[in-house]
Amino acid sequence: MQHLLRRAAAALAVPALSLTALTALSSPAHAAADEGPAADAGTWLVGKLQATGWIAHNQQYDFDDYGLTIDAGLALDTVGAPASVVENISDAVAGHIDAYVAPGYGTNLSAGGTAKALVLAQAAGDDPASYGGRDLVTDLEGRVSADGANAGRIQDDWDPSAQYAADYANVLGQAFAAEGLDAAGSAKTDAVTDFLLAQQCSAGYFRQDFAAVGAADQSCDGGDGKPSVDATALAIQALQGQLDDTDVAAHVADAVAWLVARQKANGGFGSTADISTVNANSTGGAASALLVSGESDAAAEAAAWLRAHQATNVANCIFYDAADAGAVLYDNAARKAAQGGPMDAALGDQSLRATTQALTGLVAAQAGPGSPNVLYAPGYVKAGGTTAVGVNDAAPGEALCAMLGEQSVIGWANPLGEGLLKVRVPAQAGRSTVTVANADGEIGDARIHALGAKTLKVALRSKRVATGDRQVVKVRGLAPGELGRVAIAWPSGNNGGSGAATAGQANDNGVLRVAFRVPRKHVGTATVKARGQFKNRNGRTSFTVTR
User: Fold this and answer.
1) How far apart are CA 443 and CA 433, in angstroms?
2) H-type alpha helices, 240-325
3) For the chain, which terminal residue's Cβ has fewer other Cβ atoms within 10 angstroms, N or C?
4) Are 285 and 233 in contact (CB under 8 A)?
């Protein structure tokens, strides 16, 4: 079995270490794939790995992260990175294989680590039977339980007397084991796959943690398993090579349906009930699972969220350091932090993992249907207030920049390719232009006309009007076409005081004319209040109502 999406991926015809083109694995019929986001993320990721000898290094805590390195190698292989890149990563992992799968501290052999390394070796075209001096298939087969309810479960080889040792095997490792052993043609594939399927609850999701080894019921339903987007997405991908088995295919279909229902309105995914915040790690894994399962629209929406969290500089909205361009930020907070300057060690480590997990999901990124359009309803705005400039037909998730004077406002298109950028209107009344750009340059302008505070002149046909007669109010000082309102507060009569209001639009000379008949039951002083489009543009007067 080839790794995950690899069967459909196209190889990159680009120089080593430079990802400049990608072919989408599948995409909605109504939209074209946009190769740029995945290419930018892949380029950034390759650069980071190359700089540290092809092993992901955690800067904050100063250790080599072999598991993350394997994730990066698999992601780059999936999107069709040059074979030399994947080979370099695999060779580097093979050179440290004992440190990864047998790290000590009481862990003699990590079953999950062995399974993950096996899948990388297979993806890179290396011999798993001689990988850094280890036979990964034999090692993994030796960690598959044959005991009763635990049959097919992978288990670590650990020393119970060691202070920090424990069995860390979980559903993520089980998924890798099912994939790797299936590709190796192992006789233990069926048992491992069956145990993996038992970790799926009837609702469709997979849990992440196993039941205790001694539990009589090892199933998800029997153990009251908690939903995990990450485990569900990985299981869907790992089982792609076994979809010819109708039972496996049915389980995968249920998992895909659950994943689709779990997607947020903004396209993203949280991890678990405990980590419900939408994040790049879970969204990337879910997007990959949806894409390989033919759920192209849902995958594209997830890719839009990922793209909106990718460090992309646009026009004057340049917030990201050049060295960070292309990286995917974990969540909204991380994106904001990265805009403040070069990423520090903690943010850089987080983004290295986020970009790795997001890379294959970004393959589903879509281009807009054509050239983006700037949308703005002609009319007046309040000086010193705010106004919104819209964009449609943008690429879903792409960064947009609105510029007005020295002001620059960044925003992102939603999964429908629509953006809304709120800008501050100059405090001075007058006309100004908002220019909107994306990463390719300016896409259009919105011309705004701000109105400031003003005392309006309110004139009457007569200062004394008999009940039942006609009165005319003229409001001067409005802008041509400005919306205005005239309100009358009548004097008290037999039925008490009452009022009336009439709205209209000023003519080309800035005059609003309102005519009405005076009620017969109200005698005394009537107050006239006029207001323009905004509350700070007003005037008033009064007249006497007689019998």
Assistant:
1) 13
2) 246-262, 280-292, 296-307
3) C
4) yes
Structural contact between residues 451 and 479, judged by C-beta atoms closer than 8 angstroms? yes
Going by their DSSP bridges, the two strands 537-546 and 454-455 should be labelled as parallel
Residue 60: both structure tokens together: 């904050």
Q: Are 143 and 118 in contact (CB under 8 A)?
A: no
- Residue 167 φ/ψ, nearest 5 degrees: -90, 105
Q: How far apart are the first and last CA of the chain?
A: 98
Residue 290: both structure tokens together: 């949806």
Residues β-bridged to residue 500: 488
Q: Which stretch of DSSP H or E encloses residue 182? A: helix 171-184
pLDDT confidence of residue 399: 97
Residue carrying the six token digits 């092993």? 55
Distance CA 504, CA 532 (A): 10
Residue with the bigger pLDDT between 30 and 251: it is 251
CA distance 125 to 358: 24
pLDDT digits (tens, 9 = 90+) for 259-283: 999 999 999 999 887 788 999 999 9
Write the DSSP symbol of residue 209: S
Instruction: Quickly count: other Cβ atoms within 10 Å of residue 346's Cβ.
Output: 14
CA distances from 344 to 60, 330, 355 (A): 9, 14, 16
Dist CA 446 CA 379 (whole Å): 11
Region 360-380 average pLDDT: 94
Give the whole-angstrom CA distance, residue 482 versus residue 29.
45
Assign 489 to helix, strand or coil: strand
CA-to-CA distance for 542 and 118, rounded, in angstroms?
A: 89
Burial of 357 (0-12, 13-18, 19+ CB in 10 A): buried
Per-residue CA distances from 46 to 17, 81, 526 (Å) = 6, 9, 77
Cα(363)–Cα(388) distance, integer angstroms: 31
Distance, CA of 252 to CA of 235 (rounded, Å):
8
DSSP string, 303-371: HHHHHTTB---BTTB--S-GGGTTPBPSSHHHHHHHTTSS--HHHHHHHHHHHHHHHHHHTT-B--SSS
* Tokens matching residue 346: 């903690």
Q: Enter the tokens of residue 499.
A: 């009022």
Query: Tell me: the pLDDT tens digits for 385-412?
Result: 999 999 999 999 999 999 999 999 999 9
Beta strand ranges found along 91-183 (DSSP E): 107-109, 157-158
- Please name which of 418, 5, 438 lies closest in space to residue 179, comparing C-alpha atoms: 5
Which is more confidently placed, 180 or 274? 180
| Contact (CB, 8 A) for 400 and 411 | yes
For residues 228 and 209, give the distance between their C-alpha atoms in angstroms, rounded to a whole number: 9
Pairing of strands 464-466, 537-546: parallel
